[in-house]
Amino acid sequence: MILIQSISQDYSTSVVIQWLCDTNEDFIRLNNKSFIDQITFSENIFRIKINDKIIDLSQFKSYWFRRGSFDFESKLNQNVEMKIPIEGYLKGENLIIKEAIDHYLLKNVKSIGNYKTSQNNKIIACEVAKNMGFKIPDFIITTEKIELLKFYKKHPQIISKSLYGLPGFLANNVDYSAKTRIIELSDIKDCTDNFGVSLFQQYVEKKIELRVFFLNDKFYPSAIFSQNDVQTKIDFRNYNKDKPNRVVPYKLPDDVIEKLKKINQELALNTGSYDLILTPKNEYYFLEVNPIGQFAQVSLPCNYYLEKEIAKELSNA
């Protein structure tokens, strides 16, 4: 049997499951709304009950950590006064359970991804990539306007990026999400002398952008022609739905593939997506690696059938 951990709205998970159904594979899918309400863990037993279903983790031959998490439903008496905030205590309890389940599964079955490596650190990943021989954009993390001004004077153009994920917020019934954008001098002048921790990066001119999905050191590169459209030039995620960017399969040089393999090994990754840049001078820059990431935008236009490849990997355990 195969265990899949995801979120209910993840389309790619559903497509992988369709492939599993075609080969009559048994599987269980746990979504982000799954609560563990019973658990028994001993030397020979690791059994949990989720949504009225008892699951013996020893019966699984493979495990795919796609997205999300699950929580251990607390049985604590809410009338008991705690010396520490109850939310903090329960968060710690949940963390132990998640890590224990992850460790148990990784030790006994083939896995694609895991809870631990899903927490990506852009700064660490860039440092590792640099040590492996990649060029990376110059960057600064700062809370000080004066330091940002110095960085701005150092580079012809700079951009802002989030350190963790893509934050978003709702204001006046409008959904806003953070994207990469050019920072102008007027933006900096409008800043207060001190602000929240922020990442700023040298803007690197692009010939094409590369999104490279990988599964167990097999790489599926795609080239994104984002530079032909003003709307997508800075960040291809500013999608032009009327005229989408052209996306085609791409062949990476052998030395670039070897560097990516070394990064996988250093960061203990067996799946995810790399974001790279090919400059007009044909230099490869490393931007980041996403251990989770969307892969449909690589799979569909390039005819890689990645969902089928994932299903095969889970089945052939």
UniProtKB/TrEMBL annotation:
This is Grasp-with-spasm system ATP-grasp peptide maturase. GO terms for cellular component: cytoplasm. It comes from Flavobacterium pectinovorum. Transmembrane segments: none annotated. One of its GO terms (molecular function) is ligase activity, forming carbon-nitrogen bonds. SUPFAM superfamilies: Glutathione synthetase ATP-binding domain-like (SSF56059). PANTHER family: BETA-CITRYLGLUTAMATE SYNTHASE B-RELATED, RIBOSOMAL PROTEIN S6 MODIFICATION PROTEIN.
